[in-house]
Amino acid sequence: MDTIVSVSNLEKSYHSKKAVAGISFSIQKGEIIGLLGPNGAGKSTTINILATVLSPDHGEVQILGYDLIREAKSIKKEIGIVPQDIAIFEEITAEQNVRFFAGLYGFKRNKLNELVQEALELVGLYDKKDDKPRTFSGGMKRRLNIACAIAHQPKLIIMDEPTVGIDPQSRNHILNSIKTLRQNGATIIYSTHYMEEVESLSDRIMIMNEGRIIAEDTKENLIQNIGNGITYTFKINNFNQINKNEIFQIHGVTNVQLTGKDLFITSEKNKDTLHSIVSLLLDNGCSFEKMTSKEASLETAFLDLTGRSLRD
Amino acid sequence: MRFLRIVKFDFGNIFKNSTLLISNTVIPLILIGLMGFVTQSFFGNGIMSSYDYYGVSMVILSALLIIMTATNAFMEGRVKQANIRMIYAPIPKFEIYLSKIISTYILGTLAFSSILIIGQYFFYINYGGTNLPYILLIVNMLVLFGSCFGTMMCCLLGDEEKASSISQLPVLLFSAFGGIFFSVYGLGKMVAAISCLSPVRWIMECAFRIIYDNDFALLLPVTFSLLGASIVCIVICQLTFKPEEFTC
After folding, report:
1. Distance of CA B107 to the CA centre of its chain
2. Class for domain A229-295, per CATH?
3. Which residues are in the ABC transporter domain (chain A) (predicted)?
4. pLDDT tens track for A60-72
5. What is the pLDDT of residue A127?
6. How far is A262 from chain B (nearest CA, A)?
7. What is the widest separation between alpha-carbon atoms in chain A?
8. A53 and B13: CB-CB below 8 Å?
9. Nearest Cβ partner of A88 from B82, B89, B90?
10. Which of 3.40.50.10330, 3.40.50.150, 1.25.40.180, 3.40.50.300 is the CATH number of A3-218?
11. Chain A contacts of B4, Cβ < 8 Å?
C-alpha cells in the first residue's frame, strides 16, 4: 500500500505552549482517518501543518512523497482542504465559486468546466449552480464548501469539521459524498466532534489530547482495548464528600472521571459493580439526580482516554 | 493568467460592494458640493471659488481614504474567510496581497479619474484645464499609495477593523494640517510651519501650483515620493504578510 502521509516527531509551539508535542503517524492510500480530540488537543494545528500553512518547529512530514518544507507547492497542488469555517463568496453563484477556486490550480477552460460540474454533482448542488450561496441553507453552504475544496480532484483531502451545525439530510449527503470520494481513490483525514460520523466513516481513528496522539487504531480495537466495559454516568450534586480513590477500590472499576457535575465510572463488563458504587455514593452522603449506563463505545473509549467528553 | 483571474475576481468583489462603490464615487462629489456650498462666502469672487478649492482637496482626501477600500477588500470578514482558500492553493503569497492592491487601485483610478473629468467638464471645477492629466497623475499616484498603505496595514495588524481605524488617524491629522478642510495660512505662522510636515500639504500645493500657476516644480518630487512610498509598503507587505493568520 502507498504511504500518502508520513509524519515523524512533529512539534509545534505557540510561545511556550506546545500545541503539537512530537507526534508520529502515517496514512495509507485510500484510508479515511478520523481525527478526534477535545478543543485545544492540537488537531487544527496538525491540519494546518499538513496543509502547508503552518511551519513545524521540529519533525519531518512527507505528503505524497513530497517534503513539507521544500516542496510545499507540489503538496498544495495535490491536497484539498475543507476548512471549518465556510469559505465561499456569498455574492456570486455556486458555479462561479467552484470555478474560481478550482481555477487557482491552473486548469484549462474545458477541463475546468468538467471539474466544476463533477464537484457540484458530487455534493448534489448541480441543479443550484446558478444560485447565489446567500440564498442557501447552512447545509447547502457546507456542501458548496466541500465542492470548492475537491473540484481540483486532490489525492489527499483534509476535512476540518465539515458538518458543523447542519440538518441531517445535508449531513447524510456529505457523508455519502465522502464515501464516494474514497471510492474514487482519495485519501481523507476527517476531523470532527461528531463521534457517530467517525464511527461510520473511518478506517482508523486517531485520538489527540494535549498535543499528543494518545490512541490510534480501528474503532473495534479502540473499544476493545480501552473502553471495554460499562460506563455509568451519575449527575452528582455534592461530589466533595467522596474520594475518587474510594470508588477505584471497588472491584471491577477501571476508571473514574468527573466533568462538571457528571461523574463517569467505567466498570468491567460482567462485574456487578453498580450496587457497590451506588451504596458507596449514598453512604458518603452523595446525592444524584440521574444515573445512566452505556456499554463500551467509541465515546466511552474517548472519555476514558482524555477524561473529557468530545464536545468539551 | 491565473494572477489576472484573481485580480479580475477581486475587482468584481469590490465593484459589487455598493458601500465601497458609493464611498469612492458619490461621497466625494457630495463632499465637494457640501463644503463648496457652506464656505462659498469665504472665497468671494477671486480666481478660486470654494468649489475649486474643495474640488481639489476633497478629491485628495477621498483618494487617500481609499485605504479603507483596500483594508475592506483584503480582510473584511466574509472576504477574509473566502480568501482562506487562496492560502491553501498553490499560489505564491505575493499574488494574494498584490491582487488586492491592484484591484483597489483600478477601482480608485476609474472612480477618481471620472470624478475629475466630470468635475471639470460638467461642474466647471477648475482642475487645470489642459493640465488636467497632471492632476489625474497625482490623484492616481495617491490612490496607488492608499491601496498599498491599506493593504500593508492589514498585513501588519492582520485585522480589517484595526487597520482601518489606525490608518484613519494619520490620514485625518495630515489632512487637517495639510489644509484639506481649510487653509492653514490663516491660523498663524506656527500652524503654517507645522503644515509643512504634512505630505498632504505638498500634494495640495503641487496640485494648486499646476492648476493656477502652470508650475510643475513639485510634480516629480510628489509623484516619485508617492511611488517610492508605495513600493516601501509593498516590500513591507511581502515581509510581514503571514498567510497562516487567515486560518486563525
Report:
1. 11
2. alpha beta
3. 5-235
4. 999 999 999 999 9
5. 94
6. 32
7. 76
8. no
9. B82
10. 3.40.50.300
11. none
